[in-house]
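Help wanted!
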Amino acid sequence: MEEFPPEFDPARLIKMMSKNGHNKLIGTQYHAHGDSWCELALPYSETLITDSDTRILASGPIFTLMDMVTSMSIWLKTGTFQPQATLDLRIDYLRPARPGNTVIGRGECYHVTKSIAFIRGTAHDGDPDKPIAHVAGTYFFTAS
Amino acid sequence: MRLETSPYGRTMGFTAERDADGRLVIAMPYSDGVRGRPGFVHGGALAGLLETVAYATLSEALGDDDRPHIKPVNLTATYMRGAVEATTYARATIERLGKRVANIEAVAWQDDPDKPVAIAQINVMLDRSRRS
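Answered by r_m:
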């Protein structure tokens, strides 16, 4: 990932990352960001459902969305683009996303040490006050 | 979920296999579509694979006559090694299959099942008042 500029620009980064790899496959898009948080959007797609009858979005893409958005919150918190890997990530599914709705994932980095970043996040499908999922997890800095 | 009719499974390129003991193994071939950082499989793709094999294994264990509505509760993924540009395999063990709750552990590996790249603990609710 050394091709990215040292100054961290989430909108630019997500646009670059969305051009290839798993993020392109599931279609994540930049939504918003702040000092230690970021939001990404996952538009509904018929290619990402598990069952043509229920048409509910699979949970795998939601997990990917939350992994991506919590990763970005760490870079925002630290202000540097340092390499990191997910140590663990837990997702609680509060309710299914409504078929057809875009899912917005929000990730926040609330603490960093020399080696570890602690994150949490939520996802909703239209109303931030009615989340569909919560996540919590840790990342470690692979270069430290 | 049924792997053969899952659009997400097709999008990810999942295929079902059997190991020497007849246990279900799901394979995820490496492609640009599952890539995260250059040279490695995305953690989200691994979680999707682990979750898929867990649900498919649960569905087999329940059999054709017992088809409760399955509600995902949570999933905790732990990443142990970087998964490189190779096929990733996964299988699941149902730790407990109760009346209302099932606890499942899934493991993913590449060349050696004893060297997992990721594992997941998955809890689901089984609602037998609804059938799926």
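OP: Thanks! One thing I noticed: The first strand of chain B starts at residue 15 and ends at 18.
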